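Re: beginner question about structure tokens

> Can someone show what the tokenized structure looks like for a real chain? I only ever see the sequence side.

Sure, here's an example I had lying around. Input first:
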Amino acid sequence: MLVKSNDKEGAKVYEMIIKQIFQDLQLSPSINDMRVCVDPEEVVFILAMKLGKTSSFTPLSDVATVKYDKEEDKTIIRVIDENFLPNILKKLWGERGRENVHQPNRFNVILDGKQKNLKDLVIDDPHENLKKRVYDAAFRIIPEGFRIIRDISDGDVIAIVCTDELIKDEWLDKGLEYVEELKNQ
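And the corresponding structure tokens:
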């Protein structure tokens, strides 16, 4: 972690704040490296974080079987790994509407008609989950009152430039420099 600031004590404080937030959210092992620029005179905060590797996503076919009942004209999802049931329901509710997803018991989910491409439906994506948690941490780290935020993330690097004024091009350039530096590691 590299925290740059013209205020050395402020940099130390921000490093402590970041470490505490990462510890609270259990993110420390998930971030490979980080760059932070805090400038109280320019009133700018730049944060760039390189995400670590995560396991691959889980398709529905890994945690459930999908069969079409021609007589009933229904697609039946038989849940094999019950731990994924909340993810399955959330995904189906979001894509097909809550009123179209029926759950007669805890192991079966029924959809009307013949449903296509269900086996490839992504039920759990650790990389996306990590990104959400890292953004949560970033918004906790941003100084109070910095309401103007520009997301300049790219791939596995989450980066933001924040201020309480208009964002200057040189700040964006500095943030993009951090992004490139972290991407090339």
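Each token stands for a local structural state, so reading them left to right follows the chain. The two ends are 13 Å apart (CA to CA).
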